[in-house]
Hints:
- This protein is mainly beta.
- Helices cover 0% and strands 52% of the residues.
- The protein is built from no helices and nine strands.
Amino acid sequence: xxxxxxxxxxxxxxxxxxxxxxxxxEFASGMSFNEGMAGVKIDAKGKWGxxxxxxxxxxxxxxxxxxxxxxxxxxxxHGCVTSNxx
Length: 86
């Protein structure tokens, strides 16, 4: 299923191709999906996680602080994750 980020009142969620809200509008930021994953900013403090197209982020206690280093590379507070976004 393809999901698309949507924002309302400064928060982000995701809709499907028909416009149905699939993931509640609750995130501080939301990126487009790539290879089945989308980066979502959990809160205004800078915590990010990766969400699958079912809206699952996994263990939210394991999300980290991410900095976008460009070319699909994100530097995390507890490691390095690479996602090919180009």
